[in-house]
Design a protein that fits this description.
The longest helix is centred in the first third of the chain and has 10 residues. By secondary structure, this protein is α/β, with parallel strands linked by helices. The protein is built from five helices and ten strands, in the order αβαβββααββββαββ. Strands 8-6-2-3-5-9 form a six-stranded mixed sheet.
C-alpha cells in the first residue's frame, strides 16, 4: 500500500511516527484542512506534471495555483498534468495521496516558494486519509527535492 511506502521512506529520518492517519478523507485541500485542523493554505498539495516522458512533482501551498507563464519560464515547456492513470504508474501513489515520499525512482521533486510563508505544512503521506506535519527544512530533507521554484500564484 502507498501509505506504507511513504511511512517506510520517512523511517530513514526517524519520522515514521509523525505520519497521521484519519478516519475521514483528506484527498482534497479542503478535506485535508478539516482533518488536520488548519487553514487550507497550509496543506502542501503535490501536483504531478510531465516534461516529455519524464514525470515531475511540484509541492505547493494549498491556496496556490500554477501560473502557466512562470511554469513555462522555469521548465521551458507548457504545463501538462499527468492523467490519473499516469500518476499511479509514474509516481507510485494514487490521486488524493500523492506526496514526495516513497515515490518511483527518477521522479524529480520541486518545492514551490508559496509554502515558505508557513512555519510548517501538511503534505499527504501516500493515501487519501493521511498527512504529516513538516517544517520547510524537514520537507527539504525528506522529499529529496531538486530545488525551490516560483511557479505559482496565490488565490
Amino acid at each position: 500500500m502507498s501509505i506504507e511506502r511513504a511511512r517506510e521512506h520517512m523511517r530513514k529520518w526517524g519520522m515514521e511516527d509523525k505520519v497521521l492517519e484519519f478516519e475521514t478523507s483528506s484527498a482534497t485541500v479542503e478535506l485535508a484542512a478539516l482533518a488536520v485542523g488548519c487553514e487550507p493554505a497550509r496543506i502542501a498539495k503535490t501536483l504531478s506534471f510531465k516534461i516529455g516522458e519524464e514525470a515531475i512533482l511540484i509541492v505547493t501551498a494549498g491556496d496556490a495555483k500554477i501560473d502557466n507563464h512562470k511554469y513555462k519560464e522555469q521548465f521551458s515547456v507548457k504545463a501538462k498534468m499527468l492523467s490519473p492513470d499516469e500518476v499511479t504508474e509514474k509516481i507510485g501513489h494514487g490521486i488524493g495521496g500523492v506526496c514526495p515520499f516513497g515515490i518511483n525512482e527518477g521522479v524529480k521533486v520541486y518545492l514551490d516558494e508559496s509554502m515558505k510563508r508557513f512555519e510548517t505544512v501538511f503534505p499527504a503521506c501516500g493515501s487519501s486519509n493521511s498527512a504529516i506535519e513538516l517544517t520547510m527544512e524537514e520537507l527539504e530533507r525528506c522529499s529529496g527535492y531538486e530545488m525551490w521554484v516560483d511557479v505559482c500564484k496565490l488565490g
